[in-house]
């Protein structure tokens, strides 16, 4: 039986030194071979000429047949969601991938996820299993945002909240099989492009943090979100909220914005 040809697109948003984003881009191009791919590299108005450096680096990336790379330099940093929404009007692919600059592939995970979603037409959003570079599994939220679980993930010394976090990460479920989820991380998400466009992409008012939880809820109004653990990727996971107060403030503010929109859960 002849394999169905799908069209893929992916976007990596960069701010600052583009070396990591270019490494992620090279990884995506190296391993994504079964389906045509358009890869967008969006610089979010980085200082010190980093956007120009990203564009120059993009020109040096090795592409295979059917692969296209496009670098876009924004004049204003509108945040994570705005950066990804930059390409929204241009998307004509079957499946689109939202990728962090600290993602690395070791297999054709984009094609694998697209093929799997194409076989499951009720699924509009999915993600692979993510690991640290050491190989350790990343335990990420899979159920809808709840306040006490988010507090625990910032302050794990509060051991009395562990059970709530276990519920948040679906520790009660067998996550070695494809599983329907309520929260699809923005570090690596696959979306049906037509649905992503229909919901208007990200809510840009979040600027940074929790916008992925918001997008998941918008997408879930059109279909299902899934963890598909047989497909994997490496995520280095830079947790800025642990290192300075400003990102932590963004996270807290956006959490309450999310709750006001989708309902509060303690």
Layout of helices and strands:
Layout: E1 8-14, H1 19-31, E2 37-43, H2 50-59, E3 67-73, H3 80-85, E4 95-99, E5 103-104, H4 109-118, E6 123-131, H5 147-154, H6 162-168, E7 179-181, E8 188-192, H7 193-198, H8 211-220, E9 224-235, H9 245-262
Parallel strand pairs: 1-2, 1-4, 2-3, 6-9
Antiparallel strand pairs: 4-8, 5-9, 6-8, 7-9
Protein name: Glycosyl transferase family 2
InterPro entries: Glyco_trans_2-like, Nucleotide-diphossugar_trans
Domain Glycosyltransferase 2-like: 9-199
The low-confidence runs, each spanning 5 or more residues with pLDDT under 50, are none
Shape: globular
Strand content: 15-25%
Q: Biggest sheet: strands, sense, closure? A: 9 strands, mixed
How many β-strand runs?
A: 9
Question: Could you estimate the helical fraction of the residues in percent?
Answer: 25-40%
Return the CATH topology: Spore Coat Polysaccharide Biosynthesis Protein SpsA, Chain A
Pfam families: Glycos_transf_2
GO molecular function: transferase activity
Domain Glycosyltransferase 2-like: 9-199
Keywords: Transferase
């Amino acid at each position: 039986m002849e394999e169905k040809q799908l069209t893929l697109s992916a976007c990596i948003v960069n701010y600052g030194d583009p070396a990591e984003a270019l490494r992620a881009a090279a990884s995506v191009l190296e391993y994504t071979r079964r389906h045509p791919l358009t890869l967008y590299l969006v610089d979010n108005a980085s200082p010190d000429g980093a956007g120009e450096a990203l564009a120059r680096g993009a020109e040096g990336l090795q592409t295979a047949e059917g692969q296209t790379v496009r670098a876009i330099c924004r004049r204003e940093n509108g945040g994570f969601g705005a950066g990804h929404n930059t390409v929204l009007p241009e998307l004509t692919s079957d499946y689109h991938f939202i990728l962090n600059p600290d993602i690395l592939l070791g297999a054709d995970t984009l094609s694998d996820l697209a093929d799997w979603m194409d076989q499951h037409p009720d699924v509009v959003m999915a993600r692979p299993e993510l690991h640290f570079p050491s190989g350790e599994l990343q335990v990420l939220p899979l159920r809808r945002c709840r306040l006490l679980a988010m507090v625990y993930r910032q302050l794990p010394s509060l051991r009395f909240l562990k059970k709530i976090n276990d519920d948040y990460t679906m520790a009660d479920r067998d996550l070695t099989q494809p599983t329907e989820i309520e929260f699809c991380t923005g570090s690596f998400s696959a979306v049906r492009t037509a649905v992503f466009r229909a919901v208007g992409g990200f809510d840009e008012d979040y600027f940074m943090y929790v916008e992925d939880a918001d997008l998941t809820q918008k997408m879930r109004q059109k279909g299902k979100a899934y963890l598909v653990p047989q497909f994997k990727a490496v995520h280095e996971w830079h947790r800025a909220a642990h290192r300075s107060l400003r990102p932590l403030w963004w996270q807290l503010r956006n959490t309450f914005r999310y709750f006001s929109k989708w309902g509060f859960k303690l």
